[in-house]
Structure to design on (122 residues):
């Protein structure tokens, strides 16, 4: 599933085991928002999608990387690692990506707290 490009297409990058991700999903459902879900652990983003996502978030890859996750160090990464190395690790170990992330058109928002995703729905 490609990242949406139109404002009427909304995609939630979701991890059902994550409480914030479940809360964000429930928030969207409670508000009647029509959206698709991508289980990014099962269908990881590729390098181009991660670059695109960073642009939509307005953040460097490290800003939406779970640096405290054990897999971060196991991948040989540090907070000084270059973005290409971080993207490569994230494509092979998608648990490193912050979650949840809601994408709508050219914008994206991290749902921490879940209400933060509402900004891109207006």
């Amino acid at each position: 599933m490609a990242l949406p490009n139109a404002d009427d297409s909304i995609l939630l990058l979701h991890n059902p085991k994550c409480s914030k991700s479940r809360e964000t999903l429930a928030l969207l459902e409670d508000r009647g928002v029509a959206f698709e879900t991508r289980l990014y652990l099962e269908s990881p983003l590729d390098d181009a999608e991660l670059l695109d996502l960073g642009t939509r978030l307005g953040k460097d890859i490290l800003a939406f990387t779970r640096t405290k996750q054990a897999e971060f160090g196991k991948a040989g990464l540090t907070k000084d690692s270059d973005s290409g190395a971080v993207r490569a690790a994230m494509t092979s170990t998608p648990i490193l990506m912050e979650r949840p992330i809601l994408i709508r058109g050219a914008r994206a928002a991290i749902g921490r707290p879940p209400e933060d995703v509402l900004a891109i729905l207006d």
